[in-house]
Specification:
Blueprint (H helix, E strand, L loop, with lengths): L1 H20 L9 H8 L1 H15 E2 L2 E2 L6 H16 L2 H18 L1
Length: about 100
């Protein structure tokens, strides 16, 4: 039963992507839908990363001893400074492990 669910979700995901990536299919989105979908990725990342960064022990943790918060702030700074995604990911991961070990 689990394999059937995994297979079904794989097919749903594949066809969901295929409809938008296949250039021969006659699906065209208007400007408003494209702008709306542009907010999907930042919204999803915020929903995933927000609780990881700000919540600890079922409460908000904004202390300077929170390695997730410090690494998140450093990631924002590195991204604004370098505009390089690979450098930002590598450096922020290294800083996160440094903060986690140090604090």
């Amino acid at each position: 039963m689990i394999w059937a669910i995994i297979g079904g979700m794989t097919l749903i995901l594949f066809f969901n992507r295929y409809l938008f990536l296949e250039p021969r299919l006659p699906i065209r989105l208007n400007r408003g839908v494209k702008e709306f979908l542009g907010f999907a990725v930042p919204g999803m990342l915020t929903a995933i990363c927000g609780p990881i960064i700000f919540v600890k022990d079922h409460g908000v943790d904004l202390s300077p001893g929170n390695p997730y918060l410090l690494a998140g702030l450093c990631t924002i700074g590195v991204m604004l400074w370098s505009r390089n995604v690979l450098l930002s990911v590598a450096l922020s991961a290294a800083l996160f492990y440094l903060f986690r070990w140090w604090l």
